[in-house]
Known about the structure:
- This protein is of the alpha/beta class and 405 residues long.
- It folds into 2 domains: 8-27 and 295-404, Aspartate Aminotransferase, domain 1 (Alpha-Beta Complex); 38-293, Aspartate Aminotransferase, domain 2 (3-Layer(aba) Sandwich), CATH 3.40.640.
- Helices cover 41% and strands 16% of the residues.
- The chain is built from 14 helices and 15 strands.
- α7 links the parallel β5 and β6.
- α3 crosses α10 (278-294).
- It starts with 7 loop residues before the first helix and ends with a helix.
- Bound molecules: pyridoxal-5'-phosphate.
- Pyridoxal-5'-phosphate binds next to α4.
- Pyridoxal-5'-phosphate binds at residues 91-93, 121, 123-124, 169, 173, 198, 200-201, 221, 363.
Amino acid sequence: MAIRTLDVAAIRKDFPIFETGIAYLDSANTSQRPRQVTGAMLEYFEKFNSNIHRAAYRIAEEATVRYEATREKVRAFINAASTKEIVYTRGTTEAINLVAYAWGRKNIKQGDLIVLTIIDHHSNIVPWQILAAEKDARIEYVDIDDRGELRRDQFAELLNRGPKLVAFNLVSNALGTINPAHEMVAAAKRVGATVLVDGAQSTPHQPIDVRALGCDFYAFSGHKMLGPTGAGILYGRREVLEAMDPFMAGGDMIKTVRVEETTYHDLPWKFEAGTQAIAEVIGLGAAVDYLNDLGMDAVRAHELDITEYAYEALSDVDGLTVYGPPPSRRAGVISFSLDGIHPHDLATIADRDQVCLRAGHHCAMPLMTRLGVAATARASFYVYTQKDEVDRLVSSIKEAQRIFA
Ligand SMILES: Cc1ncc(COP(=O)(O)O)c(C=O)c1O
């Protein structure tokens, strides 16, 4: 079946922020939100604002229905087997922390091995460091090769040591590298490891099928996929989630509470204590609808087209180093450095031209150390990115080079 081409001009009309004239090249950080998403949230606030799961009146019923409808949308979007496997969190960070606490504290023991990668985001490193310190467990990191791709020989060698947990991102936020996740999960499962995939940078940009992937946990954030901040997802295989104790405790995650003891709610609500981010979850549902209307194959194809264009344009600039693999094996993310110009200076000059560019360590300091740099500049793309925004970035880079010459 032919893949549709995105009508980017039409898409941009759904995003009022582009009327300001900015070239937004920081979608890996957080995406923009279309009117459909903010509209769904506004409708909740203006027409049926109320708490969910606990009121008997009509607007509370409406809020509950819309809140729970997102769960089915997300289930279908990532092809999970059941809505019981879809847990709402505030984002990827909270989802990974949930696993580190509720699964990790029960299952990781002294001397156990946890395998991570050098291209992981801090949110998939620090929770495991805290757990490892508490349990006297060990962490090993899979290194990268010169192209910024994971070293498979080293991954295989670490799997031979029988890790209890393997956790890695499907797409690196700092390099854009698309990891061979299906192979990696299958290999880790063969040695009996539990596997967590950080899907923060993959879910917004390519079709995802968690059952085909075969991982135990998969985490992502709504705000990187056109949704609002404050709503994210932990997917967990049902048997694994069933065997876990709650993460947070309080209202809504219980069945009965007596002064002596408490019984917990069924999945997925066992992991959703307290009043939830209702408007944000509803907004996330609208974002999933929006992406489904575009088609995730078309989203990936558009980003590949922009990435190839940007990769070539940036590679042509003298004194510019691009990090990471060629466009076909990377998502819409390009990290680079400029000889003699600090990424923050470049970002400041770009900002004068209304070009929004990220500069820094991208919450991947171990990777920066591995690359021998303190920071990089990073341009990242999404469904609304146009080639003329890349051209504006290249002009800003040339302007920076004139200023710092
Ligand atoms: C690969 C990756 N993992 C995790 C996160 C953390 O996501 P959040 O801050 O939404 O929890 C990010 C955010 O940049 C990311 O890129």
